[in-house]
Amino acid sequence: MTGYFLVGITFLGAAYGLRTDGHIRITIFTDKIPERFRKRWLFLIDLISFFFIIVLFIKSAQLFQFSFSSKASSSTFLGVPLWVPHLIVPVGLGAFVMEELKNLVLTLKEIIQSMKQTNGNNGEIKIK
After folding, report:
1. I need a surface site. Which of 34, 60, 70, 114 has the fewest CB within 10 A?
2. pTM of the full predicted structure?
3. Based on the structure, what is the number of domains in the chain?
4. Is residue 128 part of a domain?
5. Distance between CA 40 and CA 43 in Å, rounded?
6. Domain annotation covers residue 81
7. Residue 51 domain-assigned (yes or no)
8. What domain range is 89 assigned to?
9. 73 — phi, psi (to 5°)?
10. What CA–CA distance (Å, rounded) separates 77 from 104?
11. Cα radius of gyration (the chain)
């Protein structure tokens, strides 16, 4: 049972950690990037993370579907149906995907806003 709870805490807490900016970041590289490019770099990293989490979400949903359809159960004396703990992973990753998508949209808005400010206040974006 403790293993199931550990999985639940990990995957359900990941989205909360992302929302509160509680994840650990190693900023030795990003600190050296000029301020005007830093948001773009963070957007790229978030985009890569987003696609990685999407793949994990799909695979965990497939595992849940398999364990649900095969009616597999644990070999412990409780005989817990495996779809129950397997459901925790796609639910947590789904929340993480939604939170990461929100961050991507907000960061993209900030990038567009900063591009508008650097090109003047006329609202046009000039690409060189």
Report:
1. 34
2. 0.76
3. 1
4. no
5. 5
6. yes
7. yes
8. 2-111
9. -135, 160
10. 45
11. 20
